[in-house]
Amino acid sequence: MFVRDLYLEIHEVTTVRNDQSVAEVYETINKSGYRCIPVIDTEGMYKGMIYKVHIMEYLYENDGDENATIDSLLKHKNETISKFSPFLKALIAIKALPYVCVVQDGKLLGILTQNRVESVLKDAFGMTTGGINITLSSVEAKGMIEKLTRTLRGENIEGMFTLDNGSVIARRVVITLEDGKTDEEINVLRDKLIKHGFRILHIDHIDKVE
């Protein structure tokens, strides 16, 4: 999965220009309802991000000039990703940011939000469909996924997420199967997994999360 499959395109994003005054940008960011918006120049080139809190500090705590441009208040000028970046790179890049800007050849294409990243993780856990959530482990890290999928042949796997990657001792896997099984059928499945060398850590029903 790549960033191009997830990001909001620029026509869906509130932006301001770096040649606008602090007062103008403050008005725009207030109307937008966001705490931070991207900044571009007149040609659409990415210049950074501007936070409402920094404008307020500049105006009301530092007695700044509301007619000055916002250049000195810009943040995260170099913290961008490409639309061809893989999802894992985006996950690292976004960190504590409200979003990460998607830039190609210096031009702002759009933004990847925390909500979009969260939706991918929800899907990986099977939370977008709901179902039977099973956390299991195996001491056989190598070939574990292949063995698991063989064991679950015929089951509809809604989501799968691996933990403890790199461990040579044990690895955990969280899977979500299609709901609709009776308690007896779940117990049969549990016994089947145990028979094939998996340790069942937790089984639960999860509801669909919008």
From TrEMBL:
Domain of life: Bacteria
Keywords from the UniProt entry: CBS domain
Domain CBS residues, every copy: 9-66
CDD domains linked: CBS_pair_SF
InterPro entries attached to this UniProt entry: CBS_dom, CBS_dom_sf, Lmo0553-like
Protein name stated in the entry: CBS domain-containing protein
Species of provenance: Sporosarcina siberiensis
